[in-house]
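Exercise 3.2. Students should predict the tertiary structure of the chain below and write it as structure tokens, then compare their answer with the key that follows.

Predict this chain's 3D structure.
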Amino acid sequence: MTRVCIVAAFAVAALAGCGGSAASLDDAADATSAETARFALDYRVTGGPKEGEYTTQAAGEFDFPGEKATMTIHSDVPFFGEDVSWEEFRLIGTTGYMRWLVKGTTYWVKSDQSDTGDDPTALLVPLPGSPTKPTDVLARVLLASDENDELGEEEIRGTKTTHYRARVDVRKLMKQLGREDRPEGDAVELWGSRFIPVELWIDDDSRLRRITTEHDRGGARETMAVDLYEYGIDVDVQPPPADETISEDELDKILGNRIELKTGEGEVVCEASPNPKKADRECRELKTP
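Answer key:
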């Protein structure tokens, strides 16, 4: 898995001359250190081809320096039909295992997670398989934004936090990475806009507790919120049973190599590879939710 650590000292230089909330965010970027935590994700797409709302929730736990994680997934979008779904993901080093349920049979699909593909969200949101750790987020936001506002104190999952809002320039965000680590394609085209509103909630120990992003793409509004909590937990992740583990190519054969991606109402909008990353690229122009 590619790893890019943005040193907090660079954020200090980038914010020279700025004041107020920017300085507070800088302090948080410099002090954040805990790198194991539980997390909860909420991803929503509103609008798009059917003018509906589609949601995906995930919950799990990370050990970022140990490069291991596990999470369960629930989505109300029947991407692959009612008898095909994915429900769990495990990460061990650069190897990912996705648990698929195909017509009542469980398959663990093994994949290489060293390439984040063309998903720019991976540069801001700390999730399994992304090149971003909680300790990266604050410095990346600071280096990529000219506007930072403090919005006051709020409680997140019982913890007092300070709420900030930043306006991130996605081109500046992409330039923080070496060319070999950047998502493919033009940053503005990938995000749907050059400037993205990002909100952060930081606790009294300068740890990231919540991050939200939202942007419009292809006529749809995409929003994502990730909570981090119970920092410092022990994370134990084991590989799935070997006799249930198959390759992506083997999954392609089981599903017939090509599958139909459907909307929530069952309308076929794209025929694509069963590999989620490939399917996203192949159907992006059709604005599949």
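Discussion points: Residues 109 and 246 are 5 Å apart (CA to CA). The chain has one domain: 8-286.
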